């Protein structure tokens, strides 16, 4: 029940100021967001890839209120891609983007977001990698899927994210699985009303398995975004049943959560991609990580008590 409360706090300027000012906050945030600049994040990229892991990289920040801020977000990704080029990692380091950062919520936002994200997708392709469009709240998804479809005309490897807790997602998955897309399936981390989304964990878990089965049996490339040991085991069984080889799907987990499991899956031959965020506007991302899992909140609360 704490999840919705935390998600509401993620949109509160007062809570943002309170939590950001707490002396211990940065120490805890560093667990999930290991840097604020490209210079700080590149050593993490090298460390993870040296350990047999892959990455999807997110420049955090969603409160875009002007076209100039949207252009700055675009440029931040272009800088990241330029700095990754000498490492020659190819698809081992891809990008994840939220279209809200590219101006999707502004007047004319659909066209603006498409115009801003396209150069990022082009630059990623030039260094041998790709971009995945993150899913946000349900009101943005029709625009996101339309942009995804448009980008795939020239860059078919462009991925997208679908969220198991939304009622619409089974139909979205059916369409995407048939289209040969790269699709990341997550449970969902936004506060959604009961009219559009499952509210109970057991309902979300059952939907996750139904949708994952569709993806595994389809023609696309499934990306399993979960830290849940039970769902990971189910994913492995579904992959075996569907006759998929280890390089025909991948697992994805967040930086800072279940790091030992990242290494275990990679050691077993699975593709294991770590969702690695960096940047200065970390608050919204951080609060959603707390909302997703009670253990994250307990970790933060203990740190506030013992180090604050």
UniProtKB/TrEMBL annotation:
The keyword Flavoprotein applies. Its EC number is 1.5.5.2. Residues 45-301 form the Proline dehydrogenase domain. Gene3D superfamilies: 3.20.20.220. Coiled coil: none annotated. Keywords: FAD, Flavoprotein, Nucleotide-binding, Oxidoreductase, Proline metabolism. InterPro entries: FAD-linked_oxidoreductase-like, PRODH_bac_arc, Proline_DH_dom, Proline_oxidase. It catalyses: L-proline + a quinone = (S)-1-pyrroline-5-carboxylate + a quinol + H(+). Its cofactor is FAD. Pathway: Amino-acid degradation; L-proline degradation into L-glutamate; L-glutamate from L-proline: step 1/2. It holds the Pfam family Pro_dh. This is proline dehydrogenase. It comes from Streptomyces werraensis. The lineage of its organism: Bacteria, Bacillati, Actinomycetota, Actinomycetes, Kitasatosporales.
